[in-house]
Inverse folding.
């Protein structure tokens, strides 16, 4: 009987994948639960192993199963839901899958499958060439941190490698809190072994024997899968007392946050791991010198670490040859919100925002015109269609007061009320502030009141000046980017959508006309 | 569903985690899982076991949204309030669900059957709006269907 691959990814499960897997298994199919390929609008997207490759069907509901079986789905038969070989799908063909090459393809819990698909080659090479050459390779690749700040990964690793200490740590930031992002989650569910390998490479490179992966409580599925993946690798000896060779120990521990966005900030995360309130630390000292428990620590995002194995296996140059400007390699673009074809699209840097939203995303799901796109999570600016020529690259976005961040692209149609979005940015800042800086803690609350007054028509001109001043204070008087970047969504809303701030009813009237 | 506070069991939970590096969050999570919350009584116990001050432990419990002093209801509904869900009608969906159960954010109803909590992103943004009902993910949430599903569990 041919095998059927059914995603066990949380998004596919939310859309009924478990019931589909159950029904197919009852019909005698051999089921392999995989991660997601990232074509979210086709989920649950099942794939059937045939002589001509893996043929996809989607979106499959449990009610479709008997009709699919009648149509001969188990041998790739014709049916309205058949999408053909998933690799040949236009949405996949436009991509360059490096970090996500195995996601949705392999059994995430099988070390054997991982190795059969090229896994462990990167770590093997790192162990062969030694730590200094490994760091050099990562540096030469141009890989930058995918968590948001885009800091060169190799430089960070070198800093920690050079630090003298009895104990060092690698910490993986899996606290993916930005709205509109889900790449870390997908990877932990679909190809957790690549993260484990990446963390291992980093640990070997800096001389750490212990690593933590700090995930979030909002991701119960990803955490369960990752925990199982750790156990599977440990069972092979890949983690444990002889992970890097005889008596060369290394292990990874999964830790779960407790619902605080600010714990994604690296120093707040370290505090949290130590069992403290998640408050941001002043720098210096940098974590590479004094991080977790005061020891030299490399802290990197999931995607940064999970890309390291590919770079080690394929060479720095191969990676560095891809990309745009100073943004090398690929980015896992996460298309979400009101968009027709949402999902994960991994591509070299350099696509324009318009290409991403229209050509790849297909415009809005509602069919209405696109009015705003928020890139880079809750601290990223709202871009109007007039900025759609901006290339997707760290510097090009920054030049327009925008943010690539962790790769989130959230699309809104023309019913969006940008005053409400600006107000929400401040509300979110107030809710999630760690409390250390007054502008962030108090200013964000005042800001909401000022917007309310503007909309109520109270001293409009004076309050418009006040909100600008407040944003300026936030930018300058904040220790971290939560307070420091909240002004960007607020100011971009004011700048590009001034009409929405005319009055509380102006928005309703305008929408009625659109 | 949630157990009553049991100091002996709580102590066993604390001791089972005490050897971890930085054990406080894992301990608070484990207590929460067992008792549905981290009750006041836990502060002193945890402080003593870990050799911390009560103020420190209290400070940590109060910092994180996940740690609550009062038990949650039988059904915990986490509704996403963040931007990607807003773009797909998340605000309106959340209002409808809250209104149906006559609850505000974070509240539990009188018979302790339902708690509705805000979350800021569940990573299901490509099928917004999203929710988590007792840990089970739900996407493209339609209020009427979600309400019916919750009612069926009550
Ligand atoms: C408020 C705030 C939230 C953050 N959230 C995350 C996050 O969820 N995941 C992440 O990897 N980085 C996050 N960062 C960035 C981290 O501070 C840090 O730059 C990153 O983990 C470093 O890893 P990288 O160099 O691989 O990107 C956040 C920063 C701030 C200020
Ligand atoms: S800006 Fe806000 S979140 Fe960041 S350190 Fe200051 S108070 Fe804390």
């Amino acid at each position: 009987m041919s095998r059927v691959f059914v995603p066990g990814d949380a998004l596919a499960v939310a859309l009924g994948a478990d019931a589909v897997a159950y029904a197919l298994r009852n019909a005698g199919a051999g089921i392999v639960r995989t991660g997601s390929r990232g074509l979210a609008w086709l989920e649950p997207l099942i794939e059937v192993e045939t002589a001509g490759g893996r043929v996809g069907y989607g979106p499959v509901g449990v009610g479709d199963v008997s009709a699919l079986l009648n149509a001969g789905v188990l041998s790739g038969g014709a049916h309205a839901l058949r999408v053909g070989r998933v690799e040949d799908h236009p949405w996949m063909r436009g991509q360059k899958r490096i970090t996500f090459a195995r996601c949705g393809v392999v059994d995430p819990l099988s070390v054997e499958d991982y190795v059969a698909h090229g896994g462990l080659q990167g770590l093997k090479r790192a162990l062969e060439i030694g730590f200094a050459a490994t760091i050099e390779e990562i540096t030469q690749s141009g890989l930058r941190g995918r968590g948001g700040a885009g800091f060169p990964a190799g430089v960070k690793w070198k800093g920690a490698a050079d630090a003298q200490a009895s104990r060092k740590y690698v910490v993986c930031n899996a606290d993916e809190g930005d709205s509109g992002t889900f790449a870390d989650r997908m990877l932990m569910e679909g190809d957790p072994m690549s993260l484990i390998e990446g963390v291992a490479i980093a640990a070997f490179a800096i001389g750490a024997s212990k690593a933590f992966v700090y995930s979030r409580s909002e991701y119960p599925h990803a955490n369960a899968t990752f925990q199982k993946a750790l156990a599977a690798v440990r069972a092979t000896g890949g983690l444990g007392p002889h992970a890097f060779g005889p008596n060369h120990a290394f292990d990874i521990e999964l830790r779960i946050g407790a619902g605080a966005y600010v714990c994604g900030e690296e120093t707040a995360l370290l505090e949290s791991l130590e069992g403290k309130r998640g408050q941001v630390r002043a720098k210096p000292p940098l974590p590479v010198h004094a991080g977790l428990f005061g020891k030299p620590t490399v802290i990197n995002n999931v995607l940064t670490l999970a890309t390291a194995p590919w770079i080690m296996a394929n060479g720095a140059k191969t990676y560095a040859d891809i990309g745009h400007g100073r943004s090398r390699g690929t980015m896992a673009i996460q298309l979400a919100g009101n968009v027709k074809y949402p999902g994960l699209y991994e591509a070299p840097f350099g696509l324009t925002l318009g290409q991403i939203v229209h050509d790849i995303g297909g415009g809005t799901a509602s069919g209405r015109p696109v009015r705003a796109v928020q890139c880079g999570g809750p601290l990223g600016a709202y871009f109007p269609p007039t900025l759609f020529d901006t290339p997707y690259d760290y510097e090009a976005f920054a030049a327009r007061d925008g943010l690539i961040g962790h790769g989130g692209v959230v699309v809104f149609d023309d019913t969006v009320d940008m005053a409400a979005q600006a107000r929400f940015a401040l509300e979110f800042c107030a809710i999630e502030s760690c409390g250390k800086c007054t502008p962030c803690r108090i200013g964000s609350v005042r800001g909401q009141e000022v917007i309310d007054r503007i909309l109520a028509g109270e001293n409009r001109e004076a309050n418009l000046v006040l909100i600008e001043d407040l944003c300026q204070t936030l930018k300058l008087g904040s220790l971290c980017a939560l307070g420091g970047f909240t002004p960007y969504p607020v100011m971009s809303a004011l700048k590009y959508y001034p009409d929405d701030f005319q009055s509380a009813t102006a928005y309703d009237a305008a929408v009625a006309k659109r | 569903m949630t157990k009553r506070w049991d100091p002996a069991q709580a102590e066993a939970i604390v001791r089972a985690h005490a050897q971890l590096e930085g054990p406080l969050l894992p301990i608070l999570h484990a207590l929460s899982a067992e008792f549905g919350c981290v009750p006041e009584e836990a502060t002193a116990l945890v402080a003593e076991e870990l050799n911390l001050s009560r103020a420190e432990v209290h400070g940590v419990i109060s910092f994180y949204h996940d740690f609550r002093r009062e038990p949650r209801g039988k059904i915990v509904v986490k509704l996403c309030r963040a931007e990607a869900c807003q773009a797909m009608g998340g605000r309106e969906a959340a209002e409808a669900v809250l209104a149906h159960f006559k609850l505000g954010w974070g509240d539990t109803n009188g018979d302790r059957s339902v708690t509705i909590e805000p979350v800021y992103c569940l990573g299901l943004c490509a099928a917004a709006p999203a929710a988590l009902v007792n840990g089970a993910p739900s996407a493209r949430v339609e209020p009427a269907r979600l309400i019916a599903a919750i009612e069926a569990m009550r």
